Amino acid sequence: MAFMYQVSTLQALAKGDFYGNATIEELLANGNIGLGTFEAVDGEMIVLDGICYRAKADGTVEIAAANAATPFASVTYLNKELTFDLKKIADMSGLLAKLDDVVKTHGENNIYACRIDGYFNEIYARSEKKQHSEPYKTFAKVLETDQREFEFKNVSGSLACVYFPQYMDGLNVAGWHVHFISDDRTMGGHVFNCSLQEGKAYMGRTEGFSFLVPKTKFFQKLTLTDVSKEEIESVEKAGNK
Fold this sequence. Notes:
The chain has helices at residues 10-14, 24-28, 92-106, 139-146, 217-221, 229-237, and strands at residues 3-7, 22-23, 33-37, 44-48, 51-55, 61-63, 69-70, 73-76, 82-89, 112-128, 147-164, 175-182, 188-205, 208-212. It is of the alpha+beta class and 241 residues long. The N and C termini lie far apart (36 Å).
């Protein structure tokens, strides 16, 4: 089993720390599946098969440059110890309930990664526009003005999913965080909701947690203990559907 490797904390991202803390090349040296964002929150990150993709603000996808930077990301080497089929999942809550059942069986205090390949009736997702003005706004404020939402219908693709236990809430989102990319690698984003016709899940526990502490002056001066639960949840649960 591999470690979950994380760049920075979700608290820092929520407070507007959008500065690059690691390059994509450095990130991919630590895993082949994962998710995150890019410097200046220039889109949503999907890592799959050891390739890092950027889902831009219009929902289209490009391969991220090796020297591009990330303020926040989580990656690991996928452990496929648990595989199972999924059929006719009506919505996101139904899908996460299936994944949670596996987590409960194998230990809720572990960190997990999961890949789901399948055919989706609908994917409801988002990305964000790159920020240009410093000091950066909080992430919640960015979502108010620069979030872009889109729907993909009748599409084959993959979900990259990571799970963090409740005791790590704040370092990352407690529970599941899910990003999508289409099989043809043209569409993707952070997932709010989905309807899955059929698919296969590959899921496994990680051995532990490895954390990169940012060296920037901005991070070192942040007060991270006053980030509210609402601010943390805004990173994961924004959207209207």
